[in-house]
Amino acid sequence: MIIAITALKGGVGKTTTAIHLAAYLQQKDQTLVIDADRNRSALIWAREEKLPFYVASQAGATSIIHKYPHIVVDTRARPEADEFRDLAEGSDLLIVPTTPNHLDLDATFKAVEQLTPLNVNYRILLTKVDARTKSGGEARQLLESHNLPLFKTEIPLLVAFERASQKGVIIRDYADPRSTLAWRRYKAVGQEILP
Question: Domains in the chain, start-ordered, CATH in brackets?
């Protein structure tokens, strides 16, 4: 299965989603993360070599891609229309993460405008949802009112995600009381894709 994580705006949890979905898929079979982002965030996360899967650059993945039944692509933010087309043709599923922030939601609607004519299998993932506010529920209602495909699971806003990346581990392996909840959420997203 090839899953591409894409968004028209940075800071929405694209790399965090790629890393954690790869960790879930790795439990099923060998998984490769391809870091196609200019910032190389997934490669930086993997620098400590503590992740349970392999991370490669886009160029470095060409010779090994055939070895992996599951591939997660962390794309660059703000892809051009032709890149969206390539992603649509080369992926089984496109995941568009978005926070409940109105600017991020606006970028998500613009991404959907580009994806719709491509007849691509995509789903929107609400990320960085602050349980102390109503913004997650309001964002979900807005997206559902436009009949957009959404994951049932939402990813919480937690500093532990950033700290896990600094340590080079997935959230499950980071010592924080909320890590279990955070991992359960990404595991639930993975189960929505591949039970």
Answer: 2-193 (3.40.50.300)
